[in-house]
Amino acid sequence: MEFLKYIIKTRNYLAGVSFVVIGLFILSALCAPLLVSWDTATQVSLSTALEPPSLTFFFGTDELGRDMLARIIWGARITLLIAVLGVAMSLGLGVLIGGLCGFYAGRISELTMRLMDVVIAFPRILMAIILITVLGVGVTSLMLAIGISGIPIYARLFRAPVLALKQREFVLASRSLGARDSTLLFSHILPNTSSLMIVQGTLSLAEAILIASGLSFLGLGPQPPIPEWGAMIATARAHITSHPHLVMVPGLALFFVILGFNLLGDALRDYTDPRMTTSR
Amino acid sequence: MFISERYFAGSRVIRCLAAVLLGMGLLGATAAIPAENVLRYVEGADIDTLDPAVSRSRPSQIISTHVFDTLVQWKDTTLSAIVPDLAESWQISADKRKWTFKLRRGITFQDGTPFNAAAVKFNLDRVLDPQLGSPNRSLYAGISNVSVVDDFTVVIETKEPMPTLLEALAGESSGINSPAAVEKYGRRYGRNPVGTGPYMVKEWTPGERCILIRNPRYTGPKPKPDTILYRPVPEGGARVVELQSGNADIVTGIPPEAVEGLKKTSGIRVEIVPSSFQLFFELNNTRPPFNDVRVRRAVNLAIDRKAIIEKILGGYGHNPDGLFPPGVQGRVQFKPYAYDPEEAKRLIREVYPDGYKDTVVMWSTEGRYMKDRSVAEAVQGYLNKIGFKTEFRVWEWATYQRTLYKPEPGKGTGKGSNDANMWFLGTSIPTADWRLRRKVSTGDASNLTGYSDPAVDDLLAKAAVNMDYKQRMAQLGEIQRIFWEKNPGWLFLFNQVQIIGVRDKVKGLEMFAYELPVLNNVTTN
User: Fold this and answer.
1) b/e code B339-350 from CB counts within 10 Å (16+ = b)
2) Domain tally for chain A?
């Protein structure tokens, strides 16, 4: 609420629009079963193949005669599921590792961070491909691939503030009162990084969606007939000259959602930035 | 710090040098291809090996048929007769078990080794050697002994009369290799093939290109192109662009949806050539639900093939009217399977009154056959409609093939022991016996489904030794009837057509129905 007021006050219309786009995306993802049936999105019906957009088929139909609108809506659900669970996993484990390594500076934490550096040296998409090769193709392994490949980024990012925070007076005060390490870390230090978590998490969702759709474009994501935006673009590619809407629709959906998360993340960053608090 | 800066400065110099060297290398390579009379051929899949004895993939055979000669060969692309090639003439003994081949004189391999009877014996012994592990071995299994009579006479003895011997010797896997080269390169021979054919391999970079140049020692009619440049481009749309941008003269596997656009492009024509390629989903005959023939029949009735051909293949395909498409030896026509989902459901209820509860695992590949993945998805849709739960997996072709033909005893081939209930494959083999034998004879290494029918095995055994061509074809025709009408082993999909894009300047291209080109007589200007 506070954030919404902030958006209105600073007249950050882009952030407002992105808020609406993301809202629509999440809403359609959550309500997909209420809007259209799974069968409409997946049931092959060759008699209606490759129809142009019309009133019956708002975005037209794909080469197997499935309603593109239904596939976009269910695709949003899959995309959101993969992105949120993937990011939650890398955020959770990354923060834990980064926090512990920052809190207990020592040989083991040094070693862990160097290991993280090694992992970070791989391009993330390559790392994800390696993981999928090991885990096998499917929704779960795509989620794991995105989650695991993101861990080192968070570990790196969260170690620094923990290093700084543990020297702060309130932590020292609590420690001198006899608080246990776990209390210090989980009740005093990590809650103070929450704004970083929210901002980074939002921005990471955009990246996770991009990686997930990229991987399923390559055929490493959900297997047919599960609708996924990247996979939809891959199949529609053959018809790019004759039926361009088949590529455009999932492409634009991806474009808006990723842009939305990025703008939202930027706005959140401005909002949580202490240097901007004076203007609030 | 100082050291590390110097180190980086040094590495930059090295990188620049490397870039320059690389550039020169590329220039060198381009310069090495003469600008004139280069025939540029683009295909979807890559070559795996150039050793004809062990290859079973079309891309490899496109190259190997131009590098190697065989003892005998098909007269033309309609397979009207078998005519001499490296063998001048042949005779068969009265008991039909001894074939005497007179060889041509004055032929040398591309490495200078003379071609003689010993080379022929070496090659046949090699493909028969279980150590080589050739997937084509059973094609030659009837041969009991190969002996050298004199330098230019070789005798092939067979255990039983072997009517398929000439067909086998005309096949791609019978390309005669230079014994000296096979000895010299050992395991690396597949990268360094040496034959007697009109072309020799100058360079092969896997995944990128293969360059063939004229063989100066070749004594036959001089082939027209100086150089043949083969390139694999897996993606259909990208192949079309190669043709449009002038980077290719002949492009095979044009996606149906690109045909209309290409026809309008000036300087390019599209050729529609009949194909002996039939596509199907092999059904795992050894485990439920497809171990019951009624379910196998049911799924054949559940597919609307006409809709698949019209909507997905853009009309470029044919509804199968039998096991063999036109162009295959001994073809027998039957009534095409109807689209009758109600009858399909009834048949399944007969076997599973409460419906089949487990998930049917489907495997498909992408980019190997015409619109393979979309067709497979459509099939999945039809199976769902008659009440099957399905799980779908798309594989990359090379891994797919390796997985399907995994040669582990008892776990891999010939036993229907794949971890799937059905998988997408096709075959274009033009000879009746080989096309059937490897897929339907009990326990053959290529019989992935575990199909086993005593009547079929019996007919195959009879046909294997029947020297009367007509009778033999009748026996093989009876197998087609059993497989089509009584005991189908797989789910028939469609007969492919070859859609080939060529530049207008290209003249004289001939294609076998089994998708091998003859490039010797092609001119490009």
Assistant:
1) bebeebbebbee
2) 1
Chain B residues whose C-beta sits inside 8 Å of any chain A C-beta: 236-237, 255, 257-258, 260-261, 304, 307-308, 310-312, 366, 371, 373-374, 376-378, 380-382, 384-385, 391-394, 396
From residue A79, give the alpha-carbon distance in Å to each of A70, A222, A260, B272: 14, 10, 14, 41
Q: Quote the tokens at residue B295.
A: 């379910």
Residue of chain B nearest A238, judged by CA positions: B237
For residue A63, the domain's CATH number is 1.10.3720.10
Domain hosting A76: range is: 2-279
In sequence order, which residues have a C-beta less than 8 Å from that of residue B440 and are 6 or more positions away?
A: B447, B451, B453, B456, B460, B479, B483, B489
CB contact A237 to B (< 8 Å): yes
CB contact under 8 A, B257 and A242: yes
Q: Which of B435, B415, B417, B419 is nearest to B427 (CA)?
A: B435
Instruction: State which H helix or E strand residue B92 sits in.
Output: strand B87-92
Among chain B residues, the shortest Cα distance to A65 is held by B311
**Residues of A with Cβ-Cβ distance to B376 under 8 angstroms:** 224
- Cβ atoms of A153 and A120 within 8 Å: the answer is yes
Is the pLDDT assigned to residue B78 strictly greater than 60?
yes
Beta partners for residue B426, in sequence order:
B279
Confidence (pLDDT) at B52: 94
In this prediction, the answer to ipTM > 0.85 reads no
Across all residues in chain B, what is the average pLDDT? 88
What value, to the nearest 5°, has the Cα angle with vertex A215 and ends A211 and A216? 120
